[in-house]
Amino acid sequence: MDLSYSADEEGFRAELRQWLRDNPAGPEPERLDEWVAYGKAWQGKLFKAGWCGIAWPKEYGGRGATLIEQTIFQEEMARAKAPMLINLAGLTMGGPVLIAHGTEEQKHRHLKRILAADEIWCQGFSEPNAGSDLASLKTRAVLDGDSFIVTGQKVWTSFARYADWCMLLVRTDPEAPKHKGITFLLVDMHSPGITVRPLKQISGEEDFNEVFFEDVRVPRSNVIGELNGGWEIAITTLMHERATLTFTRQLQSRTALTDMLSFARRWQLNGMPATQSRLVRQQLAQAWVESEVIKFTAYRSLTKTLRGGIPGPEGSMEKLFWSEMYQRMLDVPLAMQGPYSQLVKDSAHVPDGGQWPHLMLYSRGRTIAAGSSEIQRNIIAERVLHLPREGK
Asked: Are residues 42 and 58 in the same domain?
């Protein structure tokens, strides 16, 4: 693992850092619908300046840069506390899947629009009875001439009510073994027969949704890869999601850790800064050590990719560790605050604008999203440690 950067890479970093200084995004709105419009404008601005899809091929709107430069981009975005890119599903999953498995017509139709946030994407994988066991999905797609008729339900679909396209896993051969009869479809979310209902989370946000498909007609040309060959594509998609999101999230958690250290220096415990407490210092040190562990683990995975590898089951190890580490880290400022940690953000006495209770509630879903901790442990046991499957 080489942690040094070339002169060109350092020049790229300096250029991006200066651009972010000269082009601040401005305060983020609190209402979700306003934030979506704000996020689309921000990503569009980045795209026009050449900062979006840095490692994507130039012919599809990218910069044709290296993965190292893509990593530098993520580091500098986190350093500047810039808003996340709103088209996350399209950038981390949809785009890479199209580049790897899409037709030229599909690539030219979608990729630039993904980068510019002209069209928002969502992921239709999980179902009410097929979350942990995704291969048990029931949403059906029946071929009717040149179209599929899709019927079923998906859940936990981020930004579905703002999305223009959905990466949808459907069962196209009910007689085949459950992993063999699945197809990967692209579905226009404005098609007749689609109903989206928001789901309110414990944090008060409503970016998750459940989606109902009732006789939705989807052109056969919207199949990605082969008919009934969607499972392998889905697994590749999830590996990209876990590897990419873990790298991004560990940078965001590093920012939260820096804020937490600043808060500990300001917050008073027994008439002294919290950092004077031996217990608090131990907790802060543990959080810092774990943050370093996930950072260098993510770099090791990046090195593997740079040497020609593809995301593999190690992404499950990173996702599992990060999601649980993030929860442990956020317990520290809440313990420091004591009863104040129960105050909502509109209270006159809430510390730091209420960011710590909000982040804690948000973090609880991170051990479920992109594959629950239980599923990640099964993947590690079977594919890394080569243990027998559960029940065998």
From this structure: yes
